Amino acid sequence: MSGQQRIALFIDGANLYATTKTLGFDIDYKRLLKEFQGRGTLLRAFYYTALVEDQEYSSIRPLIDWLDYNGYRVVTKPTKEFVDSAGRRKVKGNMDIELAIDALELAPYIDHMVLFSGDGDFRSLVEAVQRRGVRVSVVSTVTTQPPMVADELRRQADEFLDLAQLASRIGRDPSDRPQRAPGEGGGERQERPRQQQPRNGALESRYGIRQQQQDDDFDV
């Protein structure tokens, strides 16, 4: 790859989390950023996720705060709650439109788009970005059964990168997660700092810079 290419990362947070969970490792977002900074000029790194606004404590908030302060553009929106036909509570949090708009707007200014998602709904987006002269790589995996990437998305991409092969460069073992002390964070409301930047070392040590699983089922 050329060291002069302009790169943008587009991370479907829920999809990436589900994929790495299946593969059995966590993303180290600091290492991920460095990996692609070494492949060219990294213009933007977007991270998309829906948030449950009415929760007293959101386990994903520490990750969002860390990403915000450490080179990522975090795009969020509130989830929508509904009850399905079986009477089960569901939480819908789809960020496809937000990701697609950002990708199309940025396309004239980049040479290489890296999409972290296996969602087949993005095939048309990939095709549209390619028509604008942008090379598109899709990051997911085919090592699971069934594969986590839709076949039509993989076929459309200029390059497919398997997360299983990237794990040694951008991952961390789940056993490395710091353990919380008994009662730590139990139901206490965690307010996001507004004026003062959090201490990065504390977030990295406590949370491992990883997305934590939500308690609800998500329609992604």
From TrEMBL:
It comes from the Bacteria. Signal peptide: none annotated. Residues 6-163 form the NYN domain. This is Uncharacterized LabA/DUF88 family protein. InterPro entries: LabA, NYN. Residues 167-220 are annotated as: Disordered. GO terms for molecular function: RNA nuclease activity. PANTHER family: SLR0755 PROTEIN (PTHR35458:SF2). It comes from Microvirga flocculans. Residues 170-179 have a biased composition (Basic and acidic residues).
